[in-house]
Design a protein that fits this description.
With about 325 residues, this protein is an alpha+beta fold. It is built from 11 helices and 12 strands. The strands form 2 sheets. The protein has an 8-stranded mixed β-sheet with strand order 4-3-2-6-5-1-11-12. Strands 7-8-9-10 form a 4-stranded antiparallel β-sheet.
């Protein structure tokens, strides 16, 4: 089996991510989380493992990292709870599994994989998904495991300001560095609405057999109410994979990715227009922009080509191909 086409790409969310508001220490910590996830997934691929196993293990690593909005680092709902969504898709079989609004599941992506492999369904949500997790013996964690100080401070500020936030706000570095608890000023409250900061984690991979897979996981929106669910667990919107075209994982303002059917939009442009991966992904983000959406995506094809377009100020991202050289990037420039 040739390893010339194996490749892996990851993201840790996008949004208002600027050098001017990032400390060297915090940037190093983010990079370490991305590098650890890349190493985890690459070990699977190098040993001849499947793309599906690769993206599951990679996303688990990202879920375990406290700074990303997924798993352990998930943001808080209005009620002060952590509700998580995840999806995984196998490009070889065109099968998928997804969960939404699950609580106390340490790694929601593992539960999504079990939905795909152990049920006749694609999508489980809420109490039913949690019940399925208990039946499957999925590793659970108490509320304390998911508590991170800077996420809780985000909730307090969002509650006071009366806004619903996504992730990676302009003041996030300040919150993390010194535990700032001052309430949002009127100007900053306005910037929260305008910047549409974004937070999700995801991975796409191509294995030695040229099979593709995608996985995405998120903690949702800070201060969210009414059981809101975004694009992450919805197949074709935030997550998609098929061997004949590509595998895609999105991160962004979920409502617009839903309206744009963005993940499948990339595949459809390749399938019906004959576009290359790069062109299709760029056009999908252009369309997202045209309807008012912000964010980005990572995509891979069966030749191991990788593309990572975004229209926000930055996107935590990394990739590695058959040259086995890890690459990490954060900012637009």
């Amino acid at each position: 089996m040739s390893k010339e086409n194996i490749a892996l790409a990851i993201h840790g969310g996008a949004g208002t991510i600027l050098r001017s508001t990032m400390t060297a220490e915090l940037e190093a910590e983010y990079r370490s989380g991305l590098e650890s996830a890349l190493k985890t997934g690459w070990e699977v691929l190098e040993k001849g493992g499947s793309a599906l196993d690769c993206v599951e293990e990679t996303v688990c690593s990202l879920e375990d990292f406290h700074l990303f909005n997924a798993g352990r680092g998930s943001v808080f709902t209005h009620e002060g709870k952590n509700e998580m969504d995840a999806a995984i898709m196998d490009g070889r079989s065109i099968r998928a599994g997804a969960v939404a609004s699950v609580k106390n599941v340490k790694n929601p992506i593992r539960l999504a994989r079990l939905v795909m492999g152990k049920t006749e369904h694609v999508f489980l949500a809420g109490a039913g998904a949690n019940h399925f997790a208990l039946e499957m013996g999925v590793e659970m964690a108490d509320d304390a495991y998911f508590f991170t100080e800077h996420r809780y401070e985000q909730l307090l500020r969002a509650r006071k300001a009366g806004v619903v936030e996504l992730d990676h706000t302009p003041d996030e570095a300040e919150l993390i560095e010194d535990g700032e608890t001052d309430l949002l000023s009127a100007d900053l409250t306005s910037s929260v609405h305008e910047s549409k900061p974004i937070g999700t984690v995801g991975a796409v991979a191509c294995d030695v057999n040229k099979n593709l897979a995608a996985a995405t996981s998120t903690g949702g929106m800070t201060n969210k109410k009414f059981g809101r669910i975004g694009d992450t667990p919805l197949v074709g919107l935030g997550t998609y994979a098929e061997n004949s075209t590509c595998a895609v994982s999105c991160t962004g303002h979920g409502e617009y990715f839903m309206l744009g059917v963005t993940a499948y939009d990339v595949a459809a442009r390749m399938k019906y227009k004959g576009s290359t991966l790069s062109t299709a992904a760029d056009e999908a983000i252009d369309h997202l922009s045209s309807i008012g959406g912000e964010g980005g995506l990572i995509a891979i094809d069966a030749l191991g080509n990788v593309t990572m377009p975004f229209n926000s100020d930055g996107m935590y991202r990394g990739w590695i191909d058959s040259k086995a050289v890890p690459n990490i990037a954060i900012y637009r420039d």
